[in-house]
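Async update (no meeting this week)

Hi team, since we skipped the sync, here's where things stand on the single-chain job. The sequence we agreed to prioritize is pasted below, unchanged from the tracker. I ran it this morning and attached the output directly underneath so nobody has to dig for it. Comments welcome in thread, and please keep replies under the output.
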Amino acid sequence: MRKNNLVTLHSVCSCGVASSVLVATLALLPISAFAQAPEAGRALAERWCASCHIIDRAPAAATASGLPSFPAIAAKATTTKQSLDLFLSSEHTRMPDFSLGRYERNALADYILSLR
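Output:
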């Protein structure tokens, strides 16, 4: 009988630990979601993109340098989060190689798409 009580106690403790881990994980989800918010992408765009691109809501036209504005990129029917990720993860002759990580690419894509 004592052995069964120990097994039951172990099961209860394991469930309690699992519940705690689940609660802690769920508590972190809003932080991860917020990190991908358009505001994070805007901050990156200000630092890395604004010297060549119009990054704010402005007339969706090319800049004087012939580069598209972020609103113009967002307005294209073919622009998706996946297409932006692919574009930002490959090298381009006219763009500096920023070696953007997944976080930066996602944040920039979220910001650009928010300009629709």
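Quick observations from my side:
The radius of gyration is 23 Å.
Residues 21-32 have pLDDT under 50 and may be disordered.
Reply here if anything looks off.
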